[in-house]
Amino acid sequence: MTATPRKSGQSVFETVAPASPGLIAQYPTLRDLLDAEISEALKDSENLSAKIPIAEITFQPPIPNPRKIICVGMNYPKPYPVDGVAPPSPEHIILFGKEGETLVGHGATLEAPRGTPADSFDYEGEIAVVIEKPARHVTAAQAMDHVLGY
Description:
This protein has 150 residues and is α+β, with helices and mostly antiparallel strands. It has a domain at 2-56. 11% of the residues lie in helices and 15% in strands. It has helices spanning 21-26, 30-35, 140-143; strands at 2-5, 13-17, 52-53, 70-72, 95-97, 130-131, 147-149. It has a three-stranded antiparallel beta sheet, with no helix packed on it. A hairpin with a 7-residue loop joins β1 and β2. The longest helix is centred in the first third of the chain and has 6 residues, at 21-26. It is globular. The chain starts with a strand and ends with a strand.
């Protein structure tokens, strides 16, 4: 799927072009396309269907059954302590994993925990980055060469 940005220069998209039925028949999920190492096919207009308004889309997590989900726990300073503990600085990030079942699509309802955990339910904006190919010891300038989308 490719997206068309608004003309006003905002990063919000108005339309998307889904993968064509032929491409979906060959590769039913994005995971299948990545495994086949042919994500470049998404840049070919012959592999895309007609654009549709983004308002008509129900977003799902980007990849079904992701192999690995790595989260960055502190990539910006928070102005307040969480549960009485001052957060670490962005220079000292925390990495942790998540299970695939914890993902929800953009605009989906979040389920608040029950009981006392609900007292510390902390939501924030999130962004998912889909890594297209393995990377190790790459420079900042090379990093985006390994990203399919975000």
